[in-house]
Specification:
The complex is a heterodimer of chains A (about 280) and B (about 180). Chain A is an alpha+beta fold and about 280 residues long. Chain A is about 35% helix and about 25% strand. In chain A, the strands form two sheets. Chain A has a six-stranded antiparallel barrel. Classes of the chains: A alpha+beta (about 280), B mainly alpha (about 180).
């Protein structure tokens, strides 16, 4: 038999060691009481081989998960943006619903008056406080000088009528064509008559002239239409008294009336014609 | 290549086997296509092909035993099969010369048999009941395709490594010679 060279001798020794050690470990593994060999063997195998490779695999898995996370993030961001727009739409619908509900209450409280429901179709930013266009016209029996009210109260007068639309001059228009006959109800049951003549843009109030200069008015009193003059019923809320100016020599006092709260933004209106309103 | 270089190459190849197995685990339900890497085995056949019979067999036994105990826990499959296929490289070389095509075909056949022999015995003894066609389609097809590519890569890589190591050793010896000449 040919003699083994140096390298071959080393290989034989290594084989004997590895096989011997390995078989011993395998044998020890079978016995429940001797876990030392098994534990040490498993630890070496795990620590030197499996753990580094598992860590590397985990790195690749994490990187690929990052891509998935990125895609999920993009998708969720889009969903969130859609949710925000749904929220805005919901709030818009809810506000419109509330406005219409209030308008319905107003409508139900005025059985005798002529009532035409309409919505605002145009309100230009350049004439925001002056004119709006509504979706009711001569076809719906709208007439000139009819009063236009929102759920809070009166906001304007019909200025011109077309077939299906009408232009409404708001009461906040500084150049009001027609005065509005109003009254202020007092605690003793009487009422003070006057007219709303114009709108003071500095004070952001209507200016009302009273026929009785000796009348005593206080802030917080409600001002409503008197029904005298114009094509609208009486008792429609105009605004609230905020200030009273007394001229020394003049007969008529100037009263400042704050408009209804939603005059800056309303979408639905009722056009009112002549008739008595229940108090 | 030196013994140290061969040992390191085989160790790295075995680590690659383990890593690929973790990254692409075998589907033992045989539902999809999967493959088993044998990069260490292929490296052994390529690197030990030019050594003597005794060297090949001893190295293969040692490599197989270490592979069984440390990497795949399948003693004594690799310990027995690695030396058989590594020894067979010698007769194949004698028969077909140094032809690269026959070398590649032999390695591919060895990889196939390395998987087939355990499957055959486990099938015969009723340990598994997978039909041969199913096993070939779901397991062996991708394995052979994968190794067909790997064999080319490894042969090229090891040839390149050997050439560069040879160049380095030649340069080193020439430096030493010039050093002796200058001393003399």
């Amino acid at each position: 038999m040919r003699r083994l060279n140096h390298l071959q001798k080393i290989l034989v020794i290594l084989i004997v060691i590895v096989l011997g050690f390995g078989c011993m470990m395998l044998g020890l593994r079978q016995q429940g009481l001797s876990n030392y060999g098994y534990s040490a063997w498993t630890y070496i195998q795990y620590g030197l081989i499996e753990y580094p490779l598992t860590s590397l695999t985990n790195v690749f898995n994490d990187v690929s998960n990052l891509w998935h996370q990125y895609d999920d993030n993009q998708y969720l961001n889009e969903e969130l943006a859609e949710q925000k727009s749904y929220k805005t739409m919901y709030e818009n619908e809810r506000n419109e619903n509330e406005e219409l509900q209030k308008l319905l209450d107003v409508k139900n409280s005025m059985d005798d008056a002529v009532q035409i429901s309409a919505r605002v179709v145009k309100r230009s930013s350049s004439s925001w406080d002056q004119v709006v266009t509504i979706s009711a016209g001569s076809k719906q029996d709208v007439e000139k000088n009819m009063l236009v009210v929102t759920s809070e109260g009166a906001v304007g007068l019909v200025k011109s009528v077309q077939t299906n639309t009408s232009k409404v001059q708001l009461l906040t228009n500084e150049n009001m064509e027609n005065d509005i006959a109003v009254k202020v109800s007092q605690e003793d049951g009487t009422s003070l008559e006057g007219v709303i003549t114009s709108y003071d843009s500095n004070k952001r109030c209507y200016t009302m002239s009273l026929f009785d200069s000796s009348a005593i008015l206080t802030s917080g009193m409600s001002v409503a239409t008197s029904g005298k003059g114009g094509n609208y019923p009486s008792g429609i809320y105009i605004g609230t008294v905020t200030d009273v100016e007394q001229n020394d020599n003049s007969v008529v006092s100037t009263v400042y009336v704050k408009p209804v709260t939603n005059i800056q933004s309303f979408n639905y209106v009722i056009v009112l014609g002549k008739g008595e309103v229940s108090q | 290549m030196k013994v140290r270089g061969i040992a390191i190459s085989l160790f790295v190849a075995a680590c690659f086997d383990l890593w690929i197995s973790y990254a692409f685990p075998v589907d033992f339900m045989y539902q999809g296509l999967s493959f088993q890497p044998h990069i260490c085995f292929v490296s052994l056949l390529i690197l030990m092909g030019s050594k003597s019979d005794t060297d090949r067999i001893l190295a293969a036994i040692l490599c197989g035993a270490l592979y069984d105990f440390l990497f795949i826990s399948s003693f004594p499959i690799s310990t027995l099969l690695f030396p058989i296929f590594t020894w067979a490289v010698g007769p194949i070389k004698q028969r077909f010369g140094k032809s690269v095509e026959y070398r590649i075909l032999y390695i591919l056949l060895a990889v196939f048999l390395l998987d087939f022999i355990p499957y055959f015995f486990t099938f015969i003894f009723g340990i598994i009941h997978i039909h041969l066609g199913t096993w070939l389609l779901h397991m062996e097809l991708m394995t052979l395709l994968f190794h067909a590519l790997i064999i080319f890569v490894l042969i090229y890589f090891y040839n390149y490594l050997e050439r560069s190591l040879e160049k380095r050793s030649v340069r080193k010896s020439m430096k030493q010679k010039s050093k002796y000449r200058s001393v003399n």
